[in-house]
Design a protein that fits this description.
Radius of gyration: 24 Å
Organism: Mizuhopecten yessoensis
Number of helices: 2
CATH architecture: Orthogonal Bundle
Helix content: 55-70%
Biased composition (Basic and acidic residues): 114-127
Largest sheet: 2 strands, antiparallel
CATH class: Mainly Alpha
CATH topology: Helix Hairpins
Shape: rod-shaped
GO cellular component, one term: prefoldin complex
Strand content: 5-15%
Strand order of the largest sheet: 1-2
Region (Disordered): 114-138
Order of helices and strands: HEEHEE
Pfam families: Prefoldin_2
Number of strands: 4
Length: 138
């Protein structure tokens, strides 16, 4: 962001790309946590049908440790609940980042190539869009 008044087109585009990268990071982390939650749910459902004093193994800090089902099950349930809260928080951040991106686009009058209306495009030109960002000159 330039200290003096207007930003160059490159700075505006770079700012937009940074926002999009942040949004992608939130989406990736949310997806990873949702997969972990599904794995936890599968293990929890399996362990619920097993006797409490049966041996099971759990990975703790990269080390495989032996425990009993009654020790591991509450920890798994707690972990799953905490992951659920984190997913909710990340989902809210993802939505707010999307709103921030839309405001940024409106503020700087940005259009993604290929989103422009059909009237602007010339019918004899073939449009091949790779999601290129174009800043409109004011």
């Amino acid at each position: 962001m330039a200290a003096k008044g207007k930003q160059s087109a490159e700075q505006i585009v770079a700012g937009f790309q940074e926002l999009r990268q942040q949004q992608r990071a939130f989406a990736t982390k949310t997806s990873e946590l949702e997969m972990d939650m599904k794995e936890h749910e599968l293990v929890i459902e399996t362990l619920k049908e097993v006797e409490d004093d049966r041996k099971c193994f759990r990975m703790v800090g990269g080390v495989l440790v032996e425990r009993t089902v009654k020790d591991v099950l509450p920890a798994l349930i707690s972990n799953r609940e905490q992951m659920g809260k984190i997913v909710e928080t990340l989902t809210e951040k993802l939505e707010s980042k999307g709103t921030e991106i839309n405001k940024y686009r409106e503020q700087h009058n940005l259009k993604i190539k290929g989103e422009e209306s059909k009237e602007i495009e010339k019918p004899d030109q073939e449009v091949k869009s790779g999601g290129v960002l174009v800043a409109k000159e004011s």
